Amino acid sequence: PRKIIIDTDPGQDDAVAILLALASPEEVEVLGITAVAGNVPLPMTQKNARIICELAGKPDTLVFAGCDAPLSRKLVTAELVHGKTGLDGPTLPDPTMPLQEQHAVDFIIETLRRNDPQTVTLCPIGPLTNIATALEKAPDIASRIQEIVLMGGAYFEVGNITPTAEFNIYVDPEAAKKVFACGAPITVLPLDVTHAALVTTKRNAAIRALNTPVGEAVAQMTEFFERFDREKYGSDGAPLHDPCVIAYLIQPDLFTGRHINVEIETVSELTLGMTVADWWGVTDRAPNSTFMRAIQAEGFFALLTERLGRL
Ligand code: BDR
Ligand code: CA
C-alpha cells in the first residue's frame, strides 16, 4: 500500500475521505491524520477527525493537531455549509482515543525524513497551512515527498467561496502558493472534478442500504451537507469533494486531466486564491501539477459504497 498522511479540516466530505482511506488498507496505509483549521476552527477539526476514526473502528489511528490559523490571514470558516460542529448531521459520540501530543507540522516533517525518499504521499483536503509550514520549517522534505494529491482550486468551474476561488485555496492562498512552488509532484482534484461527484438521492440511498453504523452516519452527513447546494444552486445533491483525493489513489483511472502550470493569486482582492491554470499552454511557465478535469462518477460511487461497506 501507498503510505499517506491525510491533512484535513473535517468537514463531512473530509470525514467520508477518511472513512474511504481507512476502509482501503490494501491500497493506502494511513500513517497519520493531521488536522488544520478550515471548515471550522482547529479544536473541532481535530476532534472530528478522532470521531471519524472511532466510527471507522480504527481508534489506533494517529491524529495530530496542526495550525490554527492561515500563514498571514484571518481564518475564514464554512459553518454555513458544514454546520456549527463541522460534522452536523449524525449524532456521534465524543472520541475517547487520544490526540497525539506532537504538532502536526513536526509529524509531517519527521515522517518524511524517517521514511525512504519518495515513499510518503501527502493528501491535503483542507487549507494548505500545515503543509506550507512544514515546507518552510524543513525545506529538505520537498524532495522526499512522493506526491501531493490535494483537493482544491477550480478552473472551468471557477469558485465556491468567491466567484473565482475555491475554499481550501482561498483560506490560505500564501500557503497554497508555497505548496505549488515546492517542486514535488502534485495532483489536483479541483471543483471541476468534485462538482461532478454529486451524492444524488439514489446514491445516498445505496450508502444507507449498507445498513451499518458507518453507512447510516455517512447518509446523514451528506443529507446535511447537501441542503446547502440544493437550496443555493438547485443542485441534484452535494458534491463529495474530498473523497476524490483518496479515490484517485485507489483507482486513478476514474480521473482524467492534464499536466500543466498552475499559479495561485495572492494579491488581487477580486480574484484572491484563484488557481490560474494554464490549461491551453499559453504561457512558457513550466508545468507544476496534474490538474484533473473529469471523473467517472458512477465508478467513483460504486467504489465508495463498496468500501464503506467494509467498515
Ligand atoms: C473544500 O472546502 C471544504 O468546505 C470541503 O471540505 C472541501 O475540502 C471544497 O471547496
Ligand atoms: Ca475539507
From TrEMBL:
<feature type="domain" description="Inosine/uridine-preferring nucleoside hydrolase">
    <location>
        <begin position="4"/>
        <end position="301"/>
    </location>
</feature>
<dbReference type="InterPro" id="IPR015910">
    <property type="entry name" value="I/U_nuclsd_hydro_CS"/>
</dbReference>
<dbReference type="Pfam" id="PF01156">
    <property type="entry name" value="IU_nuc_hydro"/>
</dbReference>
<dbReference type="GO" id="GO:0045437">
    <property type="term" value="F:uridine nucleosidase activity"/>
</dbReference>
<dbReference type="GO" id="GO:0008477">
    <property type="term" value="F:purine nucleosidase activity"/>
</dbReference>
<protein>
    <recommendedName>
        <fullName>Inosine/uridine-preferring nucleoside hydrolase domain-containing protein</fullName>
    </recommendedName>
</protein>
<dbReference type="InterPro" id="IPR001910">
    <property type="entry name" value="Inosine/uridine_hydrolase_dom"/>
</dbReference>
<dbReference type="GO" id="GO:0005829">
    <property type="term" value="C:cytosol"/>
</dbReference>
<dbReference type="InterPro" id="IPR036452">
    <property type="entry name" value="Ribo_hydro-like"/>
</dbReference>
<dbReference type="InterPro" id="IPR023186">
    <property type="entry name" value="IUNH"/>
</dbReference>
<keyword id="KW-0378">Hydrolase</keyword>
<keyword id="KW-0326">Glycosidase</keyword>
<dbReference type="GO" id="GO:0006152">
    <property type="term" value="P:purine nucleoside catabolic process"/>
</dbReference>
